[in-house]
Design a protein that fits this description.
about 650 residues; Hypothetical protein af1432; Heat Shock Protein 90; five-stranded antiparallel β-sheet; five-stranded mixed β-sheet; HisK_dim/P_dom; HATPase_dom; His_kinase_dom; phosphorelay sensor kinase activity
Length: about 650
């Protein structure tokens, strides 16, 4: 079920005016994409709404504003993949027939009526009622055969199934199926079903249901029904010759398939840029469901003589696959056969549960919750690879859907492979550095042992040469103990450092409280300087390791403590979320009421130069702080006024929710 059924129906219907789709493409192409504007415009496109919820399903129903839910899906699916969907629709779109326009007009009016009825009857989720109205003619707009419903064979049953596949398997799907019930049966249904039942009859031009019945089912009075009708008037039917069948597709318009496929491949290549881990997995899953109706269950690629899983699908299935240790030349597995022969294969399991010809294939089918699967071969950077797909029926997806799936998975696989190479290169570099460190440490420790031995010898002779010195032997024992500690410390340099992977994000309020506890008393309170901390709760984490941000803040606090006099004040303020150059950031301010920066530093406070503070200060703290922030796409700004004080503004990007 899903958009792949469209491929057998000829040209696609005009679900929305081309001008509206062109505006959407423009908004998707902006930087950054205008999520809220895109979502608002999408609410009037029933097929686009269906596609977005099919890509990222609901959790039973819609309990938030429809535009908010769509804005979240714009973020999760990504502008490139949504642009690909619109391009695909427009590339094979036929001119809108009278029936297409009438179906869309009915769905939009039914949606508005359902929302109005929901608000007048105090239904708590009016946008859920609007979504039900948008999908009231979904199967007809998709030109699907009601036989797909599998039970009653009605359009209402098929609409309910389509909604369930979008995660709306509760009252919303029930409402779509009960829309053809009689007025006595509908009275005992869920309120959403009653609202949609009334809205669909109010939207119908013939208006055959008496107002008294509609008012009783909807739970409103007749005057309210009249006001709702005035608010949502019936649009005039489009003029033109009659059509023989509401679902008979016209001939598709000729298109340049090569141009269309090139455009879709381009969108696929940009869809996964900069994504790793779970964000990459989620984007591929959503994109495959959006454009191909089904997501890959596993993606494998040859690594030497074995077939390894790429980190693109369910992590647990990938772990099971790794433990199974599949050889590329396995003579029984259809997965291995597809990869090494570049030929599509399929595994048809036994519903009774007995193992298939290949136990590995049988286990894989169980891991992905299917009785069988198909394998689509492809090449991942020159290496044999295969996509495991598990549709409801064990058969190859339609050719167009297969080509789109290959484009998506190939693009995501290239990103995943590049990330794996990067990670392996980092591990190799770390191993090399650790080896060099140990070798250097061994040589250093060896060279240090000689002077330490000489010092120990002279310390042992000192009491013998100066027997008259009282207590000298005890003092030399203390010095000997410290020398031994120094020797032990040098020996630790020869040990390999323990590799630790620090999370690439942190929560700023907790970090600021820990920092204040660590440096508040020694740096400020002992000197009579007041340190004030202002934070806010409920803020998202930032995309920067805690140790790096801590080092930046320590540099700024040390600078403030060095220039403030007793009675001075330093404030750390977590101001909240701001947008900087299109990036959502947390703003942190470090402010002091000291004398201000020296005049020679005002032009560029972050330029390394000798410090005027003397001593151990090297004038590198601000330059290091700026570089640390830049490494994590952050920024630091400085404002200073002579005799008034200095303020540093840190803008640290918020961690991406993908």
């Amino acid at each position: 079920m899903g958009s792949n059924m469209l491929h057998s129906q000829g040209g696609l219907p005009a679900a929305a005016p081309s001008a509206q789709r062109e505006v959407l493409l423009g908004l998707l192409g902006s930087s950054p994409p205008a999520r809220e504007d895109i979502a608002t415009l999408a609410t009037d496109d029933p097929l686009l709404v269906h596609a977005m919820f099919h890509a990222c399903p609901l959790d039973g129903g819609l309990e938030q504003a429809l535009s908010e839910a769509l804005a979240e899906r714009v973020e999760r699916i990504g502008a490139s993949l949504l642009s690909a969907w619109i391009t695909l629709q427009e590339g094979v779109r036929e001119p809108g027939s009278r029936t297409d326009l009438a179906l869309r007009g009915f769905a939009l009016r039914c949606a508005d009526l359902a929302r109005q009825l929901a608000m007048r009857s105090d239904y708590p989720f009016p946008d859920e009622a609007r979504l039900a109205g948008l999908w009231s003619r979904l199967s007809q707009m998709l030109r699907l055969d009601p036989a797909h419903a599998g039970r009653t064979g009605s359009a209402a049953a098929l609409n309910a199934r389509l909604a369930a596949e979008c995660g709306a398997e509760g009252p919303l799907a029930d409402a779509l199926e009960l829309v053809e019930a009689d007025d006595e049966r509908i009275l005992s249904a869920h309120p959403l079903a009653r609202l949609l039942w009334c809205a669909s009859r109010l939207a119908s031009p013939d208006g055959g249901t008496p107002d008294a019945v509609l008012a009783r089912v909807a739970g409103v009075d007749s005057a309210c029904l009249h006001e709702i009708r005035e608010h949502c008037p019936i649009a005039l039917a489009p003029q033109g010759p009659p059509e023989t069948s509401a679902l008979a597709p016209a001939a598709a318009q000729p298109v340049s398939r090569k141009l269309l496929e090139a455009a879709l491949a381009g969108y696929a290549r940009t869809a996964f840029e900069g994504l790793t881990g779970d964000a990459l997995r989620a984007r591929l899953h959503a994109g495959a469901r959006l454009l191909c109706a089904t997501a890959p269950a596993l993606v494998v690629v040859a690594r030497g003589e074995r077939l390894a899983a790429l980190p693109l699908t369910d992590a647990r299935t990938e772990a099971h696959w790794a433990a199974a240790d599949m050889p590329l030349d396995d003579p029984l597995s259809v997965v291995a056969l597809a990869a090494r022969s570049a030929t599509p294969t399929s595994c048809h399991g036994d519903e009774g549960g007995s193992p298939a010809r290949s136990v590995r294939d049988w286990q894989l089918a169980r891991w992905i919750g299917r009785h069988g699967f198909v394998c689509v071969p492809f090449s991942c950077e020159g290496a044999p690879a295969a996509i495991v797909v598990a549709p409801e029926r064990v058969q190859m997806p339609p050719p167009d859907a297969t080509r789109m799936l290959l484009a998506l998975v190939s693009a995501a696989a290239s990103v995943a492979s590049a990330q794996q190479r990067h990670d392996e290169a980092e591990r190799a570099l770390r191993r090399e550095v650790e080896t060099l460190h140990r070798e250097h440490a061994r040589r250093t420790a060896h060279e240090a042992r000689n002077p330490l031995s000489v010092i120990r010898s002279y310390l042992q002779l000192m009491p013998q040469r100066h027997p008259e010195a009282r207590g000298l032997a005890e003092d030399m024992d203390l010095v000997q103990a410290e020398i031994d500690r120094l020797g032990a410390l040098i020996e630790t340099f020869t040990e390999a450092p323990q590799a630790t992977v620090e999370p690439a994000f942190c929560r700023v309020p907790e970090l600021l409280h820990d920092l204040r506890a660590a440096v508040g008393e020694p740096l400020f309170e002992r000197r009579g300087i007041h340190l004030e901390l202002r934070t806010s709760a409920g803020l998202p984490p930032v995309a920067m390791p805690a140790s790096k941000l801590r080092q930046v803040l320590l540099n700024l606090l040390h600078n403030a403590a060095d220039i403030l006099h007793p009675g001075g004040r330093c404030t750390i303020a977590l101001a909240g979320e701001v947008w900087a150059d299109g990036v959502r950031c947390l703003e942190i301010r470090v402010i002091d009421n000291g004398p201000g920066l020296p005049p020679e530093r005002l032009a560029d406070p972050f330029m390394p130069r000798p410090s005027s503070k003397g001593g151990h200060h090297e004038g590198l703290g601000l330059a290091i702080s700026r570089q640390l922030l830049a490494d994590w796409h952050g920024r630091i700004l400085c404002r200073s006024q002579n005799g008034i004080g200095t303020s540093f503004q840190l803008l640290v990007p918020v961690r991406d929710s993908e």
